[in-house]
Amino acid sequence: LLSAADAGRSAYMRPLIILALETGMRRGELLALRWEHICLATRVAHLPSTKNGHSRDVPLSTRAVETLKALDPQSAGPVLKASSNACRLAWEHLVERSGIEGLHFHDLRHEAISRLFERGLAGVLLADDDDHRAFLGIDVAPILDHVNVDLSKLEIHYSSSRIFVSIRRAYAWK
User: Fold this and answer.
1) What sign does the dihedral 86-109-125-142 (CA atoms) show?
2) Which comes out higher in pLDDT, residue 38 or 156?
3) DSSP secondary structure string, the chain?
4) pLDDT tens, residue by residue, 6-23
């Protein structure tokens, strides 16, 4: 997929894909991301407005921080300078170049959460008051339908606005 992005004319597609895979953010959230809402020192991107109407903070992996640094950080302004329509068209061309049939941008969000589960579900739980099963702001209920998780094995660690969660290796794939 990244090779297909590199072969295209839209320079923002590679960082867009990497950031989607590293953060689990939606396409619209990534396109709306602004430099003034990113703190590379604390490795957090603040999303003041999301699809569900709430703000949230998204942790940034080392690879996400490296990708953002390569984009020449500014004090303000959009991180990725692309409209939603331009991004949609570039994505369609990229998928065609890659030869991956039926791939949707939203699939990157599912891949991101799958990778977190493969790592033992060690990461950041950003729960809001209404849904305590929101991992990185992603509803993990559909994923938990495929995983037999012993919730008594959850270890929850609170740190400022983030809740760090790890699961002892006590779950089994159905």
Assistant:
1) positive
2) 38
3) -HHHHHHSS-TTHHHHHHHHHHH---HHHHHH-BGGGEETTTTEEEESS-TTS--EEEE--HHHHHHHHHT---SSSBSS---HHHHHHHHHHHHHHHT-TT--THHHHHHHHHHHHHTTS-EEE---SS-TTEETTEE-HHHHTTEEE-GGGEEEEEETTEEEEEE-S-EEE-
4) 999 999 999 999 999 998
Give the list of residues 6+ apart from residue 56 with CB closer than 8 angstroms, or none.
Answer: 46, 47, 50, 126, 128, 137
Contact 24, 61 (CB under 8 A): no
pLDDT tier at 160, thresholds 50, 70, 90: very low
For 77: left if phi > 0, alpha if psi spans -120 to 50, otherwise beta; the answer is left
pLDDT for the residue 145: 39
User: pLDDT digits over 85-141, tens only?
Assistant: 999 999 999 999 999 999 999 999 888 877 776 665 544 443 333 343 444 444 444
